[in-house]
Amino acid sequence: MRRIPAFYWLIVLLLASFSPSLFAQEDLLPTDYLGKDFYAGRRAALRAGMPDSSVAVFFAYPTRNFSNDVDYLYHPNPDMYYFSGYKEPHSLLLVFKEPRTDSAGISYTEILFVQKRNAQAEQWTGKRMGVEGAREKLGIDHVYNGEAFKNYSVDFSAFKKIIVDKLPADVANGYDKADLYDLLEQFRQKSGYAANNTGRFDNRLYYELTGKLRRIKTPDEMALLRKAVEISCQAHTEVMKAIHPGMSELEIQGLQEYVHKKLGAEGVGYGSIVGSGENGCVLHYMENTKTRIGNSLLLMDVGAEYHGYTADVTRTVPADGKFSPEEKAIYELVYQAQEAAFKTLRNGARFADASNAARETIAEGLVKLGIIQDKKEVNKYYPHGLGHHIGLDVHDRGGMETLLKDMVITIEPGIYIPSNSNCDKKWWGIAVRIEDDLLITENGYEILSRLAPRKAEDVEKMISQKSALDDFKLVLPEPGGKKAF
Ligand SMILES: [Mn+2]
């Protein structure tokens, strides 16, 4: 074998030095994650709201079994994520109102216990951040492996309040001696926690404090939430262009989620709901198993999750491109209810006013159409609330009696008329929900989900457009010959 002369290597090194990617191994990860300043800011805001002599306690969500030895894709506890950025299971965050001093005399107000690095485990389930990674990436100085919690000296009896969510009762005890089961057990022992404990262990305060913070979105959060909503709208729009009666519910779900992933959203914020005709009447229909959507309305409640933040957008569209007169009448009514609700929105408004405006519009409309005789019967066909916060949870934390600037909420009236309802047959099987995501502003609102058409004529126009997905045909071998799908 010929040796390569040293000066060749020199030239290679020289050239490579202009191209850092040859040296620094590029991880090609997204670059728009929330930064450590965000998490530090959230913890500071939390501490500001905590009463004297208190500690806030955050456990990771448990992992959950999917099949045999396979787990569901892990979803972090949004509170853990919000206050630390740590996304792995088997972890614990403590935030103290009063600064504490460690054995080296260094003062601290938070401590994070993480999963220990473990090459063997990481080969199976992926890279762990570990103590060093958490210190560096999350900006928390006091980070330890979970196993250190056992001997961590904290006298929980000295706190007047332990601000903690209800502890999960169904966590499996794995082989690891510092998994969530052990962390919970050690916490119970150290703190004298009992399930029926009230007063000192305050989960009402937990919801109040976290809710007050999480319901108001910071600019950093808005950048991600806007992206989640925009990606969702692009998916809805692309599906409108591609839709035809021969498609299946699953196929539509696949197209929606394909566009999400194409645009960088890691997943969905909730199980995608794609219901054709009568299936649209099932509010949380997630089977999506109808093989042909046919000529009826298709209700799609599908939202992308982007870096933890989830959209929640519903569009209802005629699969054959044109609303029938009955479908149109119901659709217009839901649209008007939404518009009536929008008009009430602004900083300081009562959400009840928006709810009443929408319900009243639907009630009056249903009476006019002869579907109900008395406005009081409206709940029969409009059985759910008008909206909720969105954020790290699709039904995000925080009260909404009074709307405040920088809240992001959904407005989602709907009308659902199952077969055999006590009205003219021509209405049977019609289900319409229109759901938009709105940012509350000082004097009104911004419709974040405006990219997805919602006016009936705009929906029809969009369906008539060509989609890039129209040309996506699979030719698959079948018994007896090839068939195009
Ligand atoms: Mn919703």
Task: Write a structural description.
The chain starts with 5 loop residues before the first helix and ends with a strand. The chain has 485 residues and is α+β, with helices and mostly antiparallel strands. The protein contains 12 helices and 20 strands. It has helices at residues 6-17, 36-49, 78-84, 119-125, 130-138, 180-191, 203-214, 219-242, 249-262, 325-344, 351-368, 456-463; strands at residues 54-59, 65-67, 70-71, 92-101, 107-114, 143-145, 161-164, 267-268, 273-276, 297-301, 304-306, 309-310, 314-318, 408-411, 414-417, 430-433, 436-440, 445-447, 475-478, 481-484. It folds into 2 domains: 36-213, Creatinase/prolidase N-terminal domain (Creatine Amidinohydrolase, Chain A, domain 1); 215-475, Alpha-Beta Complex (Creatine Amidinohydrolase). The mean pLDDT is 93. Bound molecules: manganese (II) ion (MN). Manganese (II) ion is lined by residues 312, 388, 410, 412, 435. Residues 312, 388, 410, 412, 435 line the site of manganese (II) ion.
